[in-house]
Amino acid sequence: MEASPSNKTDMPEVRKQTNWTLYLVMAVCAAPMIFSYLTYYLIKPEGRTNYGELIDPRAYPIPELSSKALDGKPAALQDLHGKWIMLQVDESACAQPCVDKLFYLRQLRLTQGKEMDRIERVWLITDDAPLDIGLMKQYEGTHFLRVDAKKLAAWLPVTEGGNMKNHIFMIDPLGNLMMRFPKDPDANKIKKDIGKLLKASSIG
Questions:
Q1: 46: helix, coil or strand?
Q2: C-alpha closest to that of 174 among 33, 3, 10
Q3: If you average pLDDT over residues 114-142, what whole number do you get?
Q4: pLDDT tens digits, residue range 2-51?
């Protein structure tokens, strides 16, 4: 049975209304992050400074790293989508600078108080050697992921003459690298930057 002429005429209008509804829903969902980036990247009140170096998040989304958990099962940074991620890169031997970063990551998360559950800590391990059991217990709650060092080097931007192990990195809840902290950082200044990020963003 053929549809009446009036029904045929109404169908494009219904589709148009449906499309506009979909666009509106998408805009509402994206608004918090758009606003936070406008606030943090574009609206720069006089005298405001950042300790960490801002990175254009559009240029550094999390790539496919083929990372694995310590038990050998696939585990990805993308699994932490929706959280702010503090990231460090080191070999499994974990010399003193590596231990220092593990300590900073733990304490920086704790100092955010009621906001700390918005943050995850990740150590990307660049070899297959075993980890120290005592160190793992001491920094329980850190995500330990083994990753190919060459893939990481192709993704993570470092300072001239530096390397990935020099830095603590921040990844936003949408999965984009967006901040890099210097070698031998000032933990109090990192704390302030993280506090600004959490305050500016309503997601994660």
A1: coil
A2: 33
A3: 97
A4: 444 555 445 555 555 665 665 555 544 544 555 455 444 444 444 457 99
Using left for φ > 0, alpha for ψ between -120 and 50, and beta otherwise, residue 94 falls in left
DSSP 140: B
SS3 142: strand
DSSP E strands in 43-151: the ranges are 53-54, 84-90, 119-125, 143-146
Q: What is the pLDDT, as a whole number, of residue 46?
A: 44
What's the confidence (pLDDT) of residue 21? 61
The residue type of 200 is A
Domains contained in the chain, CATH given: 53-200 (3.40.30.10)
Q: Which residue in the block uniquely carries the two structure tokens 């990551």?
A: 105
Residue partners of 203: CB distance under 8 A and separation at least 6: 32, 33, 36, 82, 173, 174
> Tokens for 92?
């499994």
Give residue 204's pLDDT.
Answer: 74
